[in-house]
Amino acid sequence: MVNVICSGFVALLIAWFFAEGALGEANALTPEFFFILPIWAIGVLLMWRFVFKDGPENISPFKMIVSNFLLWLTIPLGLMFAFQFI
């Protein structure tokens, strides 16, 4: 659960940073970068199903590490998706 909160906070900060535009541009808002958050949320839902399908006490450490890695992988995937719309 801590990993979900930490990765969500990082995804939110990255989305806000890129949505505000370049560092020198104050009036440029690109809301396309908020596509990062729904893609991250889909990753959370898939991880939740993957981990809690058999119960959290029966999951192997390898599955836990893979699911956490895939959750963090949704952030750059959302960035690549957002860059397609710009």
Number of helices: 3
Gross morphology is elongated
Specify the structural class. Answer: mainly alpha
**Share in helix:** 55-70%
Radius of gyration: 15 Å
- Report the order of strands and helices: HHH
Residues in β-strands, percent: under 5%
The N- to C-terminal Cα distance equals 33 Å
Low-confidence stretches: none
Mean pLDDT: 82
Question: Would you give an account of this structure?
Answer:
With 86 residues, the protein is mainly α. Helices cover 69% and strands 0% of the residues. The protein contains 3 helices and no strands. It has helices spanning 2-19, 36-52, 61-84. The longest helix has 24 residues, at 61-84. It is elongated. The termini are far apart.
List keywords for this structure.
86 residues; mainly alpha
